[in-house]
Write a structure and sequence with these properties.
Strand order of the largest sheet: 11-10-9-12-14-13
Helix content: 25-40%
Largest sheet: 6 strands, mixed
Length: 610
């Protein structure tokens, strides 16, 4: 028996058929409905809230606890907990299309020598005395470069030469002739640099003739519906026979969407785009190449490949010029990916005389320490707290997310897009904890104070009245449901504080272990680069206050934006920098923190707020 399901989301309203008893989340996923599922539908995060009209089974005790009484009374249910047993209407409150994605970065001038170049040549037509083959004729007149063993290129060559009266444009990459086009097309030479993040995707259109950036496009990574972290997504590829294919198709679709947008906005044809350079963490790079990532998830954490790879874009399903190339930046290890290599490249730390510290904070925290003479790296499992997951009211950097809080002279907050609050994102969470520490709402152990604590009576009345009980635990109220666009009150609970403590302790401990491994002191670090989206928006003073960054680094911290994207740009506009990326990869020494007993000690110590 089938039931009628009417779905209302950002794309409009659709009437669909659902088999009796199908899980609501599975049904929405099958029909490409965007629902927030940081835990990949395991029933632990409470984020897949949808409003339902129609008969549903009574909410379980766990669903009630995750949702809260107010949300249930307003018709909200968790999609992963419920099955379709009647005709229903589902309302999905998704702001996925209005995410605030960091695409800007600190960019530098590099030598302009694009990875693909063009040359217009007029070939001598063959005659009875000159019977050289078409391949020999082209290679001889275009600098003698070799031609790759590409059957498609060889098949088209006779037609291209004769249809253009032997006046053609030759394209080159790595001293090889990779395409031959009729006429003079030298003015059309574009490439795309793409940073594939776990949460977001940022793409940049480059004019390879000038090396200038022409356009930028960003979107949320659609793989997030299978979990906020890479381990959840890897698990899905293991448990589902088509999982790896799905992950690959989702990320390739992002690249193709960016190409389509660039062509539309720039009045270009897809054939005008000849190269795509891609960076991302090691798991994203595996999904991109459709390489099983199972062995990344468990000790001894062995990736399928960490090398730089160059493939015909068409062989990967990337829809640009059929003779164009897709270039994969190299990785270092299972958890130090191509995005980190690209960030090290664009930051310039690899050639600095002093000691630099690069930190990219996300679900995993990638850390690189060093300079011209040496580079050490490590990765810490910070968890997705900084991206809003595992936080009661946590959301990504979307419209309506509380991104800044101010405890000075009263209490206030701002939201992305100046909209009514829907939740709190990573930068807001760090601000909230820092502010709660400053006014005495939480002590050095991370415990939220109560009426029995001596400091309670000393709190300002405007702060004290925000101390409430939620879900049987202490919490700090940020905004009441009636004043925002959230179905429940927005608050920081005791559990949220612990989640952030775990995350910040992992990052801070990783930094300290890396400094010790290098045989230096924290005071020896000359500069700190905060990379990535979170690093772009975080309040550095708040990060220092909670101990996310060691106090000794105060005054030396700089946000450099999407350094991974900047590195990808350098790699496409300069073959010299692309080669430099490969050199950087070989120089970075990876430190496995799980093999370092001192990491646990540092982690425990860094749990404290001091």
């Amino acid at each position: 028996m089938d039931y009628n399901v009417k779905v209302h989301d950002k794309s409009g309203t659709r009437s669909l058929k659902a088999g009796a008893g199908i899980n609501l989340l599975d049904f929405l996923r099958m029909n490409s409905v965007d629902v927030d599922t940081p835990c990949s539908g395991k029933g632990t995060c409470g984020k897949c809230k949808v409003r339902v009209q129609g008969l549903m089974e009574e909410a379980s005790e766990k669903e009630m606890k995750l949702l809260g009484k107010n949300a249930l009374e307003n018709g909200y249910r968790l999609a992963c907990y419920n099955k379709i047993t009647s005709d229903i209407e589902v309302y999905v409150d998704s702001d996925a299309g209005e995410a605030k994605i960091a695409t800007g970065a600190k960019e530098r001038e590099v030598e302009h020598c694009p990875i693909i170049s063009k040359r217009f040549v007029k070939l001598k037509a063959p005659d009875i005395e000159d019977q050289a083959s078409d391949i020999e004729r082209v290679t001889a007149c275009s600098g003698g470069f070799d031609m790759p063993e590409d059957i498609a290129l060889i098949r088209t060559l006779p037609h291209v030469l004769r249809n253009s009266d032997f006046a053609v444009t030759c394209g080159y990459m790595d001293d090889k002739l990779i395409f031959v086009e009729p006429g003079d097309t030298t003015q059309k030479l574009y490439g795309i640099a793409v940073d594939i993040g776990t949460t977001t995707v940022a793409a940049y259109l480059l004019d390879l003739n000038t090396g200038k950036k022409r356009d930028v496009y960003s979107l949320l990574n659609p793989q997030r519906k299978y979990g906020a972290d890479v381990l959840s997504r890897i698990d899905y590829t293991v448990s589902c026979p088509t999982g790896l294919d799905e992950m690959n198709e989702l990320i390739i679709s992002c690249v193709n969407e960016a190409a389509s947008v660039f062509c539309s906005r720039g009045n270009l044809a897809r054939e005008d785009i000849y190269a795509v350079v891609l960076v991302g963490n090691t798991t994203m790079m595996h999904f991109l190449m459709k390489i099983p990532a199972n062995s990344i998830a468990a000790a001894p954490f062995i990736p399928g490949t960490t090398r730089m790879h160059k493939f015909r874009a068409r062989d990967m399903g990337i829809e640009i010029n059929p003779f164009g190339y897709a270039v994969m930046f190299p990785c270092v290890s299972a958890y130090i990916g191509a995005d980190t290599v690209a960030a090290v490249l664009s930051s310039g730390m690899y050639e600095n005389d002093g000691i630099s510290l690069l930190i990219d904070i996300g679900t995993n925290g990638e850390i690189v320490l060093g300079g011209r003479d040496w580079l050490y790296s490590c990765s810490t499992a910070a968890g997705p707290a900084f991206e809003g997951a595992n936080i009661r009211n946590g959301v990504g950097g979307v419209k309506g997310a509380i991104d800044k809080l101010d405890f000075a002279g009263g209490f206030s907050y701002t939201t992305i897009g100046d909209s009514k609050a829907i939740g709190i994102c990573g930068s807001g969470i760090v601000d909230a904890i820092a502010g709660m520490l400053s006014v005495g709402v939480i002590d050095e152990t991370g415990r939220i104070v109560d009426e029995d604590d001596e400091i309670y009576s000393q709190l300002h009345e405007s702060i004290r009245e925000r101390l409430v009980d939620i879900d049987g635990m202490k919490a700090f109220l940020i905004a009441k449901a009636e004043e925002c666009a959230s179905p429940i009150d927005i608050a920081i609970t005791q559990k949220d504080v612990r989640e952030l403590q775990n995350a910040k302790a992992a990052i801070a401990a990783g930094i300290k272990v890396l400094v010790k491994e290098a045989g230096i002191k924290m005071e020896d670090v000359d500069r700190v680069y905060l990379a990535g989206g979170f690093g772009s928006y975080i309040n550095i003073a708040s990060a220092l206050k909670i101990g996310l960054l060691p106090a000794e680094l105060e005054g030396r911290v700089e946000s450099i934006g999407n350094a991974a994207g900047a590195g990808a740009i350098e790699g496409i506009v300069s073959s010299v920098m692309l080669a430099k990326a490969d050199e950087i990869r070989s120089r970075i020494k990876y430190i496995e923190l799980s093999a370092k007993p001192e990491f646990v000690d540092e982690y425990v110590e860094c749990m404290m707020f001091e």
